[in-house]
């Protein structure tokens, strides 16, 4: 068979059911091999949209996402999505066609150095120069994408390799990956248990690494056996159920007041699969200033990178968390955190008729079934979703955390809907973000995907405008989007029905109409451009110095 | 400011030098010198990097150790460093 056919056969053998992509000259042999294959290809309307769909597929299912693109512009259009997957540790395999090796390096048509471009945005990247290396390379790509700290892997395949003849004997049964049993770090665990037992004010700071390690159950057991308050990063929302009384919500720049104050006051910070990101810590030197730190991660490079830990462990959280469980002695601290949570609870008694986005999102959250997936874009609406919606599992909340990529939400929702066809999938977008990958409405139409689209429209690049208001003397440079298209008409052009609302009393009936409609639906929600996200830790400030709406 | 010498054995991949240099630059370390030669059986490359930085060298070695093409990495504080540090103190 040809190399191109081997690629598809190997995807079939690995159990890949869905891939996302866009064809072009240098990848035509692979698309030819795909024709009538068991692997279902979803033609997106832009390579970035295809790769974000693969990311949404991976994040909502726990499987590897796969995307394909041609050489040159096809491959460069993948770069943003690869960076997104790298910063959020998403297992992704990207396959790109490349011009034939005979013309590589001659500035041939649609030739660009994809391997060179990929260095900064992938966990690893391969170029296959001999068809006999193709099978091994693709297998390595899948293994690397999923192993350790997951991430994106790119495989660049020149056209002559795709067309070369090769022998391929499909294995009847996929070999199970063998994992070496690692010894638990006994001394570090002893130290961790001692620190937890002696702490008067311990707190668990939970990151996306917990669910990436498939350790959500172990984390919840740990919190039950070692009662302490907990806070999560944006990516870890849903790891601790909202019913846990001592869960204080998201920490950081737009975190809850209770979460930020508790972290600043704690004497032991147990960092689990998180990385002391600057949006979490605020002024790093003033972050949790009185705390000793226990830090556990699968990636050794994260330990001591930004904050020195008294106790650092590399390993599998599924094994380390049960071994670290020990009774705590912090009843007064628990009461104190509970009181802070009550004192700083959200208020939804917003005056007037116009729609208050936090309340609308709370109502949306309450209307959703427990297993619904919510995909966000980036900006004010993203933070409101994190603050005012509840999630039962981190795979139900897809948000571009590390890279903060506008245009993520709509294509990610496509991937999530295909990964979980029985579950309700909603994308909550802003009017700025939505337009960044609006072409994917065509993908929703083509595959009749029942994705529900909520656009929170303030006719502004709201988060940038908020910073201009607060930190740039109200100089609103290039953040006015008041010439937005009519979003409902735009959706109608893709045969997607929609409705526009601007008053509070319209919210519940509109949500009902959206969820009772069997197919895709767009709900356009007009809000006031003066609404801002609170609280906010100003850049360079410590997390206890949050700005609140009342203080403005 | 400290100097370190990294001795690195890599797979024989054409892109591996770019990877080493890209990670070193991005993580904020300066390359003061570099030598490279293929191993005797051409199965890999032996690379020696002289690194200057005011950051802990572990911040770099931890990142380099994650690279798929790196098979061995050793790090020592260089004598040149000691001399430079001495002259700086003087």
Automatic annotation (TrEMBL), chain A:
Enzyme Commission number(s) from the entry: 2.2.1.6
Enzyme class: transferase
Reported cofactor(s): thiamine diphosphate; Mg(2+)
GO molecular function list: acetolactate synthase activity
Every Thiamine pyrophosphate enzyme central domain range: 190-323
Keyword match Transferase: yes
Cofactor: binding details: Binds 1 thiamine pyrophosphate per subunit.
Family: Belongs to the TPP enzyme family.
NCBIfam families linked: acolac_lg (TIGR00118), PRK08978.1 (NF006524)
UniProt-recorded name of the protein: Acetolactate synthase
UniProtKB/TrEMBL annotation, chain B:
Example GO molecular function: acetolactate synthase activity
Stored SUPFAM superfamilies: ACT-like (SSF55021)
Annotated InterPro entries: ACT-like_dom_sf
N-terminal signal peptide: none
Pfam families on file: ACT_5 (PF13710)
Keywords: Transferase
Keyword Transferase: yes
EC numbers for this chain: 2.2.1.6
EC top class, as a word: transferase
Official protein name in the record: Acetolactate synthase II small subunit
Lineage of origin: Bacteria, Pseudomonadati, Pseudomonadota, Gammaproteobacteria, Chromatiales
């Amino acid at each position: 068979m040809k190399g191109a056919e081997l690629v598809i056969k190997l995807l079939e053998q690995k159990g890949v059911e869905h891939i996302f992509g866009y064809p072009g000259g240098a990848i035509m042999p692979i698309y030819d091999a795909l024709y009538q294959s068991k692997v279902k290809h979803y033609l997106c309307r832009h390579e970035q949209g295809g790769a974000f769909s693969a990311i949404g597929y991976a994040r909502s299912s726990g499987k590897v996402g796969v995307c394909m693109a041609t050489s040159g512009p096809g491959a460069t259009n993948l770069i943003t999505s690869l960076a997104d997957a790298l910063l959020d540790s998403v297992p992704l395999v990207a396959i790109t066609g490349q011009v034939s090796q005979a013309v590589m390096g001659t500035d041939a048509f649609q030739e660009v150095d994809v391997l060179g471009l990929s260095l900064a945005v992938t966990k690893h990247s391969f170029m296959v120069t001999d068809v006999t290396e193709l099978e091994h390379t693709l297998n390595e790509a899948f293994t690397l994408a999923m192993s350790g700290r997951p991430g994106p892997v790119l495989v660049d395949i020149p056209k002559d390799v795709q067309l070369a003849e090769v022998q391929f004997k499909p294995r009847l049964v996929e070999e199970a990956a063998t994992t070496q049993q690692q010894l638990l770090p006994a001394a570090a665990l002893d130290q961790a248990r001692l620190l937890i037992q002696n702490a008067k004010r311990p707190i668990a700071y939970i990151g996306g690494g917990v669910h990436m390690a498939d350790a959500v159950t172990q984390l919840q057991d740990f919190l039950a056996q070692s009662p302490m308050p907990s806070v999560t990063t944006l990516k870890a929302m849903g790891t601790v159920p909202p019913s846990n009384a001592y869960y204080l919500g998201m920490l950081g720049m737009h975190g809850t007041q209770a979460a930020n104050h508790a972290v600043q006051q704690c004497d032991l910070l147990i960092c689990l699969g998180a990385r002391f990101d600057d949006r979490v810590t605020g002024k790093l030197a003033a972050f949790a200033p009185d705390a000793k730190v226990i830090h556990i991660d699968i990636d050794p490079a994260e330990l001591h990178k930004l904050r020195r830990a008294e106790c650092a462990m590399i390993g599998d959280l599924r094994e380390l968390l049960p071994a670290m469980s020990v009774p705590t002695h912090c009843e007064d601290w628990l009461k104190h955190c509970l009181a802070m949570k009550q004192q700083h609870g959200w208020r939804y008694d917003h005056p007037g008729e116009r729609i208050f986005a936090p309340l609308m999102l709370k109502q949306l959250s309450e209307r959703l079934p427990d297993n619904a997936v919510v995909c966000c874009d980036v900006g004010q609406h993203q933070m409101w979703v994190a603050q005012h919606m509840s999630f039962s599992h981190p795979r139900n909340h897809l948000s571009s955390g590390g890279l903060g990529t506008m245009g993520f939400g709509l294509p990610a929702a496509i991937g999530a809907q295909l990964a979980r066809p029985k579950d309700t999938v909603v994308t909550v977008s802003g009017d700025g973000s939505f337009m960044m990958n609006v072409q994917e409405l065509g993908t929703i139409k083509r595959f009749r995907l029942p994705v529900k689209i909520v656009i929170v429209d303030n006719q502004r690049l709201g988060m940038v405008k908020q910073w201009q208001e607060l930190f740039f003397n109200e100089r609103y440079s290039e953040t006015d989007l008041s010439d937005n298209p009519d979003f409902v008409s735009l959706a109608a052009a893709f045969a997607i029905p929609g409705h526009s609302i601007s008053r509070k009393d319209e919210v519940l009936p509109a949500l009902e109409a959206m969820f009772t409609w069997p197919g895709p639906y767009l709900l356009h929600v007009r809000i006031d451009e003066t609404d801002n996200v609170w609280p906010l830790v100003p850049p360079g400030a410590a997390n206890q110095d949050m700005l609140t709406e009342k203080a403005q | 400011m400290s100097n370190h010498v990294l001795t690195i054995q890599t797979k024989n991949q054409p892109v591996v030098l770019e990877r080493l240099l890209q990670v070193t630059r991005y993580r904020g370390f300066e390359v003061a010198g570099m030598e490279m030669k293929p191993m005797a059986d051409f199965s890999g490359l032996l690379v020696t990097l002289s690194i200057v930085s005011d950051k802990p060298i572990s911040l770099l070695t931890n990142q380099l150790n994650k690279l798929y093409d790196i098979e061995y990495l050793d790090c020592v504080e260089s004598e040149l460093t000691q001399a430079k540090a001495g002259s700086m103190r003087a």
